[in-house]
Records
---
Amino acid sequence: MSSELLAPLDLAFWHLESDGHPMHLGALARFDPVPGDPDAVRELLAERAAAIPRLRMRVRDVLLPVGGARWSVDKTFDVHRHVRHVRLPENGDFAADAARLAGELMERPLERGLPPWEMYLLTGAPGGPFAVLVKLHHALADGMRAVAIGAGIFDEIADARVRTGRRRPRPVPPRSWLPGPWNVAGAARGRIEELGRALGVGASVVRASRLDVSGTPALTADSSGTRRLVTADLDLDEVRRVRRVAGGTANDVLLAVVAGALRHWMLERGDHPPAADPRALVPVSRRRPGSAPDCGNTFSAYLLDLPVGDDDPLSRLDAVRRGMDRNKAAGPSRGAGAVAVLADQLPPLAHRFGAPLAGGAARMLFDVLVTNVPLPRSTLSLGGSPLRALHPMAPLARGQSLAIAMSPYGGQAHIGLVGDGKALPDLDRLAHALHAELAALVKAADRSP
């Protein structure tokens, strides 16, 4: 893969970015103590990152299609410009210091002339644990694809690649808005079908849009350009315990935990629950099994009202479950949350000029992003050091102050809360509220007949 046009949705994310709203995903992975020199771990990171073809690609503008851009191999690629080592205070709380620094590093946009990603090795006291912060531009990866790319740094995936040999990547047919004469009829039929789907999704989006864009006060803020990361780890056995009693899925339980935690957090900070429940955008992958790993962003989303006005934990869970069931019945490509599907039907020029305007309209549809990013179920390690936690980080939409990402691994749901640093100085209280809400759900489930 030496050259490939950006898919429409990738192009949208590329143009949505501004200095105050960088559009990169992130993950903070924490490992057991490093058995040796940290610089050796940095070199191992660099070696494995350099072996991932996608991480050598950068974005370049093209003349045709008008407004489009292309992934192309960076011929001056130097992996050491992307992989860095930062030493934290040796006498501090390593986990807290790593999260604080990760938030600060997530504030900085990626350099657009280079392949759009960075990795940071974070170390503290000699012989202590270490962490790796990964930043990938959203144009490069959605959540599932980010996992597929980032997993290449782990021992198990890297060793498997060496054993099986590097598979020759399947050729990606060039994307074009100008089909040749041999397939004009087929392309025309395809575009008509796509237009019909886009009109249907567009109508759903318009119906779901809110004229009052003030949103939920606690979740709405003008951007300060700052970021803060707070983490939480929830016991998946307790999540499953609730699910067995109340039904639904583990993800339904986690969404109900988020709803209850937001309620407790708002009340604790002196805010009354809003008259209208805050609305979450819940991404869902449209990636098909066996699809090419290098295809572009492939996802849609559901819109879900989070029942923060309900004071009963099991009632909140029931409302979440019913809401998600309605979303699933409508399907990820047809409901009002399928904004990404709509974006995938637009021509490049529309994204180049329309994306900055569309970015400011996010609060018309939702108040907070809540995403669940699955990880490989196998045990993972780096340089022989076991992975203990991986906290994902989602980008903030313009005009919003909070994004929530979750990843199950090692018997826990690892949660990354990304907030605007100025708007949410009390973000750690929300992390505590997540634990309190899960405990309340477990207690309520145990009492349930």
---
Amino acid sequence: MNIWKPLSLLVVTAGCSVAAVMGQSHPLTLQDALQTGLKNYQSIKAKENYAKAATENISAVKREYLPDLNLAAQNSYGTVNGENGPMWGYKGWTTGASGPAMPSQNWNAAFGGLYLANVSWDVITFGRQHAKVAVAKEQLNFSQADLEQEKFEQQVRIAGAYLNLLAAQRLRGAMESNLKRAEDLQRIITTRALNGLSAGVDSSIANAEVSKAKLTLIDAVNYEEVQSNKLAEMMDVSPQHFFLDTTFVTKIPNQLLETVSAPDAISLRDQPLLKYYSSRVAVSQANQQLLSKNIMPRLSFMGTMQTRGSGFDHDYGFANKDHFGRGYWTGVKPQVSNYLIGLNLSWTVTDIWRTHSQVARQQYTTEGLKNEYNLTYSRLEHQLQLSEQQIDNAVKKYREAPVGLKAASDAFLQKSTLYENGLANIADLSQALYNINRAETDRDIAYNGVWQAILYKAATVGDLQLFLSQL
């Protein structure tokens, strides 16, 4: 008997606080499970931190516009031999010595001091700074959309795991009832066989039915444990036995007809997954705009105030080699000062060609992201049509399941009565036992299947309230 095939209907496809759950005195409601999962799940916490980082990044980018103010104080000791001739300090790896050009090397050394304040400020960036801030804001929108999508998917996963576990518990109950019926029939058949009222082989068949019912119950228990572990994982709590709300297997939504609304009346624009893909496009467009600003020049302001001290006298040179002092304070005390202010307009002309290729590359990336958005939108439209069909089929199964259960119950009662009176054989009774077990399973799955179908639609539309409002 294949009892697992109907359970395939329980799988919800989704791109998708509990105190002392052990020994629960009241059922774990779906709302409690959702709140616990949102509070505990680590991927949600991670994306909350990413969103906070994106918020701080906006402040960091805005502060890039502040001028660079550098303060420095330098004390040094060394010689000041000079040499006439040009020099290029490659990557800054050189030293400066302002001294006269001497006819020969000497090792006279003294202290020197340099004290300066420097301001450098890109006053006008021709749109670069504004574009950088725009990129940072779009990155924040992306992080927030990613967070909301993760929260929504996690809620759908929790709801799906909750319904699957509830169905597994009902299935285990059906298998326990099946085992009890098989054991009751086993006692009746064994008694009849011992009294010579039935063939001895009937008792062997009854024993086989009991054994099969036990094996099926073991499979049901194992399936329940798997689903229980899955729910615990989604809630990020320790594995345990959950006492669940049985609403989902005892009734269907009261407003089901309102739930099954026309797909054309539903907008997918607020779907969290679509918002996530839309934010990716916006970030790429903002980066494209920033790259386009690289062809613009840059106007910078510079200001410097500098004070120097030196142990070498003003007339130190070839004729006055002894006019220097080796004392520390003689060399480092401030003596002369200079200031400098200016504006600098710089423009790297070749950036025009470099930027053109960079912008084109980013444009293709943007178009690719738009293609992914359109693909996702189309897929969700098809899923929405499918969800309507699944709800319709689930309702049909719900209405048909009680008919099948009543028929199977009547048939089992009839066959068991006929068998006890010697008017039916063991094969008929075994088939009736199978039919009632299957009918009970179908009944439990039919109730749960309606809720699963509504959850699938809610996951497609991106509005979990469509499902929760039916509770």
---
Amino acid sequence: MRFVFTFCVFLFTFFSSFSQSNFQFKKNKSCISIPFKLINNLIFIPIDVNGEKLTFLLDTGVEKTILFSLDDKEQVQFFNLESIKLKGLGSNEAIDAYMSTKNKLEAKDFVDYDHEIYLVLDQEFNFSSQVGIPVNGIIGYHFFKNHLIEIDYQRRKVVVYNETNKKVFKKLEKGYKKEAISIEENKPYYVSNVTTEGNTHPSKLLVDTGNSDAIWLFLNKSKEIKLPQKHISDYLGRGFSGNVYGLRGRIENFNFGSTIFKNPITTFPDSTSIKSVNFVSNRLGSLGGEVFSRFSIFFDYPKQILYTKPNANVNLPFNFNMSGIEVQHDGLEWVKETTAENSKSSSSYAVRINESRVQDNLRIKFALKPVFTINSVRKDSPAELAGLRKDDRLIKIEGKSAHDLTIEKINELLKSEEGRTIELVIERNGKQFKFKFQLKSII
């Protein structure tokens, strides 16, 4: 599933729009390196909030810092709470939230002592289930606004540079393409030459690391943006205001950095899903993680400059989930694993927690393992035609126990190659069924 977190804020109470949030170096260092997890082209970094370790999506497409999942973090304290409403991508109504100030956020030695946070109360908004790891919130503009920030997708590190670091600028002058971006309403925008149906048009696009797709285009914003003749209707993901729907197809090309990307899969969200988004002047779409993950990127918000250098993935094809199913992480369960003495092989299966049994020559242990279910099935897709349904639980995929997989591995399989036969064992209403279908590229 994909996520985009652009949103509008409707306040029930007044507050100053001049937030004092500022990250700074806690110690006198030339740079701070922060490791991250990369899942579905999205970046997740560890940040301490008022002393509690949390995980954040690093998202250039949002201005405010948002927390939406604290079920396992009951000790986090927040200050100066005020009631507000949030509304963004999706077709539903605004959701209840709180604004909190005077919070301390720290990523290693990169710290802000007066950070403004928005707390989302809607427990149905469950981001963690879509990426397979606990995710507590989103951070964007305030992380980037005062420093040179590098995102190295191959080394999976975010590096924050002190302005006194002269070596990094020499590095950028040698091997990186330097381009202007505009920072508007505290978000970065890039102008790309986009070609659709034979027509090339300079297009202002949001630079959005919180979107896992390659490129989004808004059909209702310009007559120059043309819908490809070959396209499909699809579920695009989840925003703060509900599900997002639209179309997918392949356009001729667009450019980013020094690279022209040909035949990329392009997403066209419907007008209902984006009706509450506050658009800056002349914005025609977004660029996302499927593009950025092919580069090393430096963001310089103060100077409104972007530096890019292609990495080894720059020429990979733009693949698509050809199965028609979206899979979600649906919690954990205890699994009994048995390993034969003097053997490296093992087997595992789910059991009740209070079950115990002694077997000769076997080591038995219990472990918490992930559960995966089907979150949606695209109409007329190979999976739907084979008989798969929403809420089916995955038991085996290609002969492997679903317990031993991740969301990332499952998604890689479902977009691997056209014509590949996929075998699934699922559980439905307490019974197991086997399904088989072929991946089919329809765009």
